[in-house]
Design brief:
The structure holds two protein chains of two kinds.
Chain A lengths: L3 E12 L2 E12 L3 E5 L6 H9 L6 E6 L2 E2 L5 H7 L1 E4 L11 H13 L13 H14 L14 H14 L4 E5 L6 H15 L5 E4 L3 H7 L2 E6 L2 E6 L1 H6 L1 H8 L6
Parallel strand pairs in A: 3-8, 3-9, 6-7, 7-8
Antiparallel strand pairs in A: 1-2, 1-4, 4-5, 9-10
Helix pairs in contact in A: 3-4, 3-5, 4-5
Chain B lengths: L2 H22 L3 H26 L8 H19 L17 H23 L4 H20 L10 E2 L14 H24 L1 H11 L1 H6 L4 H27 L1 E2 L6 H14 L6 H19 L3 H15 L3 H7 L7
Antiparallel strand pairs in B: 1-2
Helix pairs in contact in B: 1-2, 1-6, 2-6, 2-9, 2-10, 2-11, 3-4, 3-9, 4-9, 7-9, 10-11, 10-13, 11-12
The chains are: A alpha/beta, B mainly alpha.
Bound molecules: adenosine-5'-diphosphate and magnesium ion.
The site of adenosine-5'-diphosphate has 11 residues of chain A, from strand 2 and helix 1.
């Protein structure tokens, strides 16, 4: 248990009669990529939102480095080390790419109550922002208005902002969706590097990527984790093949 | 330099040039009009921080304008009647010192903004508009029914208050004082827009979730912005009361809140000089059209509608184009 960084215990969330997450428990260990897969509407994004505190859970608990996060809001959880990306990009669209990255670096610093110093001339913030943009391949696009980015570039910027936080865990909701082949390859390379700085809970639909990257995989169906295991265990599990994988993934 | 910068410099030149000309041509009324524009601009600069940068549509900013006004009225009226404000537990005298009055106006309106902000910033959208409006009206009715300071009739002050080295009763000198304050506040606001706080506050306007996800609390950012915003508008209120040597509940009315917002919409929401240009145009229309027809507000309304429909960035947006991201 010592290398467990994030632990989720018995999370529930209902929207009316719909049980979006139903008694979900899982953990994330140092150095690993733990993929969360499952059909559309299985509750994957809901689970992430519950972990980050953007959605209040009906019940259940979340621990980060053994600290119970109950009662702590999304900002507090981010400060404690939860870095996330959104399934639908969530950025300050009027700001430039660099400004979004600086915003993240500012969050890492812990306060924005500085009123007279030009933030875009703050060397430490700029360094962190530039290095994150560099890592995701947006180094050339710092001056672009975020609204003018392509869909794929926005995904990259999401990851860059999470990087500037230097979090203890990454929670990534479909970071490769819509990236294209080359972009997806780059992202896979990036995630492989990142797992060394912090473990990643990765939601991903691309099964090639999942099976290439993940150390463990959890399968979520109708809000319930029906299995957790290594890629090899998941691959051969007949129940999962029936429920989700179908014949996409060769045995 | 960007087009907007040229436009801003030209605006300041006109705003300082017109009263200078009026002074030489011996037209004190024009100087008073220009002073009015400067003070309204200052009130608008205050609101623009909340509205433009923070996205907080406050319909209660007249509260701060009026509180600043009453800070002046109450202190000066006690000074002119030689009666202390309070005697127990300790004596507080009135004052004719502008500097003291400004500080009290800033402090009082900041405290009011803190109280109103704490209670209203948990809401957003139309609820926020309604709550700020309601607080504004509450203070308005309170002033009307408070006989000690004139109630509905307001308070008259015989002489303008004092500032060291300035003859404040000379229109041009009082204008200079107000203009200097406006310039100082604009410099500060320019820095603030480009600061860490400005970046985070405007990010919270664009995307609250994003700001939360990097570990910052939009509520705190907005509360600080609302307090600074209220304080600046409060300072403008103290100057306005001194300009008129009169303060009444009208300064606290929701129409006043609306006018301050109108300056910003005309000039350009979120633009540094938006409220300055807006206040100048407002005063010009009020003066020129007001002389032609009692119904000048109809034309003002038409202008406003035109801007909202066809020039979302206000006059500055139309002349200088889309705002460049601050860098
Ligand atoms: N805010 C919400 N209100 C109501 N229903 C929601 C809300 N968010 C998600 N849902 C529903 O919960 C289920 C799980 O959604 P989601 O977590 O987004 O699934 P996934 O990310 O696995 O595709 C879906 O049926 C979705 O329609
Ligand atoms: Mg999802």
């Amino acid at each position: 248990m010592t290398d467990t960084v994030l632990r989720v215990e018995n999370l529930f969330k209902s929207f009316g009669a719909l049980r979006a997450t139903n008694d979900v428990s899982l953990d994330l260990r140092a150095g690993e990529i733990h993929a969360l897969i499952g059909p559309n509407g299985a509750g994957k994004s809901t689970l992430i939102q519950q972990i980050t505190g953007h959605l209040a859970s009906d019940s259940g608990r979340v621990f980060l480095m053994e600290e119970d996060l109950a009662g702590i809001g999304p900002a507090g959880r981010a400060r404690r080390g939860l870095g996330r990306t959104f399934q639908i990009s969530s950025l300050a669209m009027e700001h430039t790419v660099l400004q979004n990255a600086v915003l993240g670096a500012l969050g890492r610093r812990g306060h924005a109550m500085s009123f007279f110093k030009p933030v875009m001339k703050d060397v430490a913030l700029l360094e962190a922002a530039h290095s994150a943009l560099d890592q995701v391949g947006l180094a050339q696009h710092g001056a672009v208005r975020t609204a003018d980015l392509s869909h794929g570039q926005r995904r990259q910027l999401e990851v860059a902002v999470a990087l500037t936080l230097r979090p203890k865990v990454f929670l990534m909701d479909e970071p490769m969706a819509g990236l294209g082949l080359e972009g997806a390859q780059q992202m896979i390379g990036l995630l492989t590097e990142l797992r060394n700085s912090a473990p990643i809970l990765l939601i991903e639909h691309d099964m090639d990527a999942v099976f290439a990257l993940a150390d463990r995989i959890s399968v979520l169906v109708y809000g319930e984790v029906i299995a957790t295991g290594t890629p090899d265990e998941i691959r051969v599990n007949p129940e999962i093949r029936r429920a989700y994988l179908g014949d996409d993934v060769p045995l | 330099m960007s087009r907007e910068t040229y436009l801003n410099i030209a605006t300041l030149a006109v705003l300082a040039g017109v009263p200078l000309w009026a002074w030489m041509a011996d037209e004190p009324f024009t100087i008073t009009l220009a002073t009015r524009a400067v003070i309204f601009a200052l009130a608008g600069v205050g609101l623009n921080l909340a509205l433009g940068l923070g996205g907080l549509v406050s319909l209660g900013h007249a509260a701060f304008f009026g509180i600043g006004g009453y800070a002046m009225g109450i202190l000066a009226s006690h000074a002119q009647s030689y009666t202390p404000l309070i005697e127990v537990p300790f004596v507080i005298e009135g004052t004719k010192s502008m500097i003291v009055i400004w500080l009290v106006a800033i402090l009082a309106s900041a405290l009011a903004a803190l109280a109103i902000g704490v209670l209203s910033l948990r809401t957003s959208g139309v609820y926020f508009i309604m709550i700020t409006l309601a607080f504004g009206q509450m203070i308005y009715y309170f002033a009307i029914s408070w006989p000690a300071y004139g109630g509905e009739d307001g308070l008259s002050i015989y002489l303008r208050n004092d500032f060291p080295g300035v003859n404040t009763l000379m229109p041009m000198q009082f204008f200079g004082l107000c203009f200097a304050i406006l310039c100082l506040v604009l410099v500060g606001m320019n820095l603030l827009q480009k600061s860490a706080f400005g970046l985070a506050l405007s990010a919270a306007r664009q995307n609250e979730t994003r700001v939360l996800s990097v570990g910052m609390e939009p509520y705190k950012l907005r509360l600080v912005a609302f307090v600074i915003s209220g304080a600046i508008t409060g300072l403008a209120g103290a100057l306005f009361a001194d300009l008129n040597r009169f303060v009444s509940p009208t300064m606290l009315s929701w129409q006043m809140s609306g006018e301050i917002m109108i300056f910003i919409i005309i000039g350009g929401v979120g633009r540094l000089f938006g409220p300055v240009i807006g206040a100048m145009i407002f005063i010009l229309l009020e003066h020129v059209l007001g002389g032609l027809s009692e119904f000048w507000h109809v034309y003002l309304g038409a202008l406003l509608l035109g801007i909202v429909l066809f020039a979302k960035g206000g006059v500055i947006g139309a002349l200088a184009g889309r705002e460049k991201a601050h860098d």
